[in-house]
Amino acid sequence: MKAKLEQIKVSALGEISADGADLEQLRIKYLGKKGELTAVLRGMGQLTPEERPVIGQLANDVRAVIEEALGRRTEEMKEKAMAARLLNEKLDVTMPARRPLVGHTHPLTLVQRDLEDIFIGMGFSIVEGPEVEYDYYNFQALNIPEDHPARDTQDTFYITDKILLRSQTSPVQARTMEAQKPPLRIISPGRVYRSDAIDATHSPLFHQLEGLVIDKGITMGDLKGTLDVFAKKEFGEDTRVRFRPHHFPFTEPSAEVDISCFACGGKGCKLCKGEGWIEILGAGMVHPHVLEMGGIDPSVYSGFAFGLGIERIAMLKYHIDDMRLLYENDVRFLGQF
Ligand code: PHE
Do the beta carbons of residue 37 and residue 59 sit within 8 Å? Predict the structure, then answer.
């Protein structure tokens, strides 16, 4: 029996240390309930009382040796597996990274920020107004009562009889007069809506930038000077400004304002359609009745206002010939700015 135990020990240790040994299988084979060591212990009944403790002790020693060998081998194999994994999953942190795709600022945003910078430089502050607006601010407070013909050219989308999508940024003039005391010097950029069919120069949604200055002694000369600085900063130092008489219900006198063509300098070219001048905005002196409705005394204060189309400036500046390009979000187009 002693020899048998000795032989079990030797063969177990041999198998455990062999390459690719299945340790669980070996544990069952030697130490399991039906294993070789257990079989030997079962036969202990046939031994003499003197032999029994000796063989028992020996069997326990053999079990301990095998268990210890199994444990050690299990550890060894775990370490080997980990080393192989580390080698396999090695990561080179010095490798160049994938370049992230960087977006572009939309041309309308570029122009809007440009304009804001120019007017902030002249002491204006930015005011925002709602796109869903009362008929009152969009029309009535601007001297456009119900049934006034000026409503035809600014047909828009109605939410109710009294609430609409604003057709211009001019309602911010009326709101600012109500909310603040003069002196006022504000611009207000934002979206406006008109029920126009979409084509190369029209869109039911576009952007304007409104300007309003009110103080004691403001004259048309201040309006001309302000727009002159704006035109030179936006279109180049050689740009000249021209006023043509016009009519807006909320300004008096009113003007349409042209700049000398920045492409040809005024000689006439494709961009200005041979005119030498390009129309860029509407402006005028705030109508006394509009001041009154805004709670400002027209015998004390006067002011000027202007409104320009941001799309129009962007299209001129970047030679964009179709307005729809500005809204389609084609990255091949947007990536050029
Ligand atoms: N709101 C006018 C328009 O949309 C432009 C304008 C603004 C004219 C301010 C005069 C003064 O046509």
Answer: yes
Number of Cβ atoms within 10 Å of the Cβ of 100: 6
Instruction: Summarize pLDDT for 57-67 with one digit per residue, the tens.
Output: 888 888 888 88
Q: What is the mean pLDDT of the chain?
A: 92
Question: What residues in the chain have per-residue pLDDT under 50?
Answer: none
Q: How far apart are CA 288 and CA 298, in angstroms?
A: 5
Kindly list the domain boundaries of the chain, sorted by start residue: 2-88, 107-334
**Reported CATH class of domain 107-334:** alpha beta
| Cα-to-centroid distance, 69 and ligand 1 (Å) | 93
Nearest CA residue ID for atom 5, ligand 1: 307
CA of 246 to the centre of ligand 1 (A): 11
Pocket test for ligand 1, best of 170, 191, 246 (most atoms within 8 A of CB): 170
Q: Give residue-wise pLDDT tens across range 139-149.
A: 999 999 999 99
The model scores a pTM over 0.90: no
Return the residue whose CA atom lies nearest to atom 6 of ligand 1: 307
Residues in the ligand 1 pocket, defined by CB under 6 Å: 168, 170, 248, 251, 282-284, 305-307
**What is the C-alpha end-to-end distance of the chain, expressed in Å?**
93
